[in-house]
Amino acid sequence: MGITQPVHRWAQQTPERTAVIDGAAGTTFRELRERVAGFAGALRGLGVGPDDRVAILALNSSRYLECLSAIPWAGGVLNPVNIRWSAAEVAFSLDDSQTSVLIVDDTFAGLVPALRAASSSVREVVHMGNAPTGPGMHDYEALLAAAEPIPDANRGGDDLAGIFYTGGTTGFPKGVMLSHDNVLASAMGGLIVTAAYRLTPDARVLHAAPLFHIAGFGVSLMTSIVGIPQVVLPFFDPEQVAATIERERITEVFLAPTMLQMMLEHPKFADHDLSSLRLLTYGASPITAALLDRVLAALPGTALIQAYGQTELSPLATLLSPRDHLDADPAKLRSAGRPCFHAEVRIVGPDERELARGEIGEIVSRGDHVMQGYWNRPEETGQALRGGWMHTGDLGFMDAEGYVTVVDRLKDMIVTGAENVYSAEVENAVDAHPDVAGCAVIGLPDPEWGERVHAVVVLYPGRELTAELLRAHVKTLIAGYKAPRSVEFVDALPLTAAGKVRKSVLRERTNQP
């Protein structure tokens, strides 16, 4: 089975049902199959053959969703490009993966001359925007109109589905190789928990998180498998998300915690009727206890799911189910849930042995969802997959019932005065202050303590707070040595396109003389 199979299934069974809604335009499953087969033919005409890489650098759109199926339909391999990258970073990913065809929309068409100059691998560029197509590019709709539809290449199993590049916030990004089996195993594992909320006649999923990210891609794949209409926003905007949920009667959405916070704080949030929303999945970065409490209070009729994983796991490892969110046990509510049906998860020490329940170690996972490896990086692949387990680089513990709590990234753990401090614990304490809108905790070099706990804090508009008062607050919740020794107040935190705080940027900025 491959990721194009849902296109065939729903074009056969519900051909006139709406598959995609993009603004005022709608596409049926029959039309989707025709367009996918046609654009696959166009790609074949541009020279795309088995295992050739095709990149997409674009905002979310119905055409983006078509490309996610048309590229493997033509026999190619997906390379969804991070929309936050510079031209140099994009060019690196194109050449590193030897991508031959690049697809851009209006937002990124202006980068094409620079990318052509910097990349030696790209032969053809396709423009899938609505503005006039510039020189040296093929128009998407013109290609589609002239192309002959082709049969599906029927890729599946261990065939490479895509190369998903990791953030690139430290050093060069790594290309994560995911097969069709990898992404389908993860999607099916997620569907087992969420099927009851999706298999209804009125179900509609909203894409507000970026489709290039493995989380957005994974939600799209799960949605395709069960044949639910997909409503597309080009990018996340808190007002537009709330308005679209109300207008389109959206029943499901995936949002990162930072997106949730922006929605709750938007002055028009309460003006919108969100009663249609049955399922909210959050993930891609940790959520603080204070924010989760606010979400539970603001959306009492919506079931919540927390998803934990990473690109290398296609992406799911654990889920905190809707039932778990109703549990009175705060420790369970603050966990990342239990391993999905497709995933084995353990907590191991430096010797790779599984630790006792409650002990903190590295989270590792194995199963059909684990990546094939890093593109052209055999040594790093071997290190990450040693012993047959994917080493996530996350620290956590598992309780007696199998619930996994993530305490920090291994690289983000702060060692101060020979004591281990987990940034997530400090962030929870800082975020619990009523004046704090958001925060990130990092370790900075310190001549006395080795490292010191440093908090970068965003306050709500009009609020005032001193470092001394914030430290005093934190000490009422956690041990004194964990409290920030230094505090920096900023207007905003640097975020990735997926809503994660870029802690490497904070470290570099804070360490500047």
Task: Kindly describe this structure.
By secondary structure, this protein is of the alpha/beta class. It has 3 domains: 29-155, Rossmann fold (3-Layer(aba) Sandwich); 181-344 and 363-376, ANL, N-terminal domain (Rossmann fold), CATH 3.40.50.12780; 413-510, GMP Synthetase, Chain A, domain 3 (2-Layer Sandwich), CATH 3.30.300.30. Helix content is 33%, strand content 25%. The protein is built from 18 helices and 26 strands. The longest helix has 19 residues, at 180-198. The termini are far apart. The mean pLDDT is 94.
Largest sheet: 9 strands, mixed
Helix content: 25-40%
What fraction of residues sit in β-strands? 25-35%
Calculate the mean pLDDT score and round it. 94
- Low-pLDDT windows of residues: none
Distance between the termini: 55 Å
The strands making up the biggest β-sheet line up spatially as: 2-1-11-10-12-13-14-15-16
Number of domains: 3
Oligomer: single chain
